[in-house]
Write a structure and sequence with these properties.
Shape: globular
Distance between the termini: 28 Å
Number of strands: 5
Order of helices and strands: EEEEE
Radius of gyration: 13 Å
Oligomer: single chain
Structural class: mainly beta
Strand order of the largest sheet: 1-2-3-4-5
Amino acid sequence: FPPSILAFRELEWLCLSDNKIHELPDGISGLQSLKKLSLKGCPITELPESLIKLENLEELDLRETRIAELPLFIWTLKSLKQLDLRSVAMLADFKRPDDCNVEVLRD
């Protein structure tokens, strides 16, 4: 993960698709303006808890990642509208909270 990206505090869309990123740094929480984050095709296996600080995040694309379990904090992201989990083969079953309005895309 290129640390220079963390300097762009006003960044609204970050596409890291098809990179060899295995983990996100905790510093990603500093991208407070981020609305869309795509990790499609990255061999990432887990999400850092620091993502909970991305209060403006509306779309999270985890297609074709190696995420095995969704962290519970995912459902508490205030602005999250869409979570793309298509082709996430290793993902265990999960239950979206009843009071959650996030659109979950799955195969």
